[in-house]
Amino acid sequence: MDARQGNAQALSAARKALELEESKNLPAPNATAKGFAQLTRTHLNDMSKHGQVGEILLALSSAIEGDREQAIALLQKSTANHGTEFPYEIRDPLFDFLRSDPRYIEMMRGMGLPP
Q1: Rounded to whole angstroms, how far apart are CA atoms 88 and 50?
Q2: What is the overall mean pLDDT for the chain?
Q3: Considering its fold, how many domains does the chain have in total?
């Protein structure tokens, strides 16, 4: 199985799981990183209406797309709101492309964590 088929199967499984939660306004599945990020972000935004999602999880969906500015902004919001999942989720490899960004380094030092 190639990566495209794997992505398509993962998107299909995610779609089925989300349907079980009765999310009606999801975008159509798209077997790309951007499509997966869009599907993830829509689901997270739906969940956040009920207070179930921290900003760091939304930052992960921005990181999937490679959106540096949005990811940094959401990470900063997470630290300002004292997101409890921040110290754990910040080590996700999806954030690797941010680790040399001066704003990321400053944010991590402000949290008392190594960059």
Answers
A1: 22
A2: 78
A3: 2
In a shared domain, residues 89 and 40: no
Q: Torsions phi, psi of 101, nearest 5?
A: -70, 130
Share of the chain above pLDDT 70, in %: 72
Mean predicted confidence (pLDDT) in 43-69:
81
CA dihedral defined by 95, 68, 106, 91, rounded to 10 degrees? -10
Statement to judge: residues 69 and 26 lie in one domain: no
- Alpha carbon of 40 to those of 15, 20, 33, 50, 84: distances in Å? 10, 15, 10, 16, 20
- What number is the average pLDDT over the span 81-103? 89
Higher pLDDT, 54 or 71: 71
Structure tokens at 99: 């680790």
CA distance 114 to 21: 38
Spatial contact of 38 and 30, defined as CB atoms under 8 Å apart: yes
Q: Which of 29, 53, 77 is the last residue of a domain?
A: 53
What pLDDT does residue 28 have? 58
Cα separation, 37 vs 60, in Å, equals 9
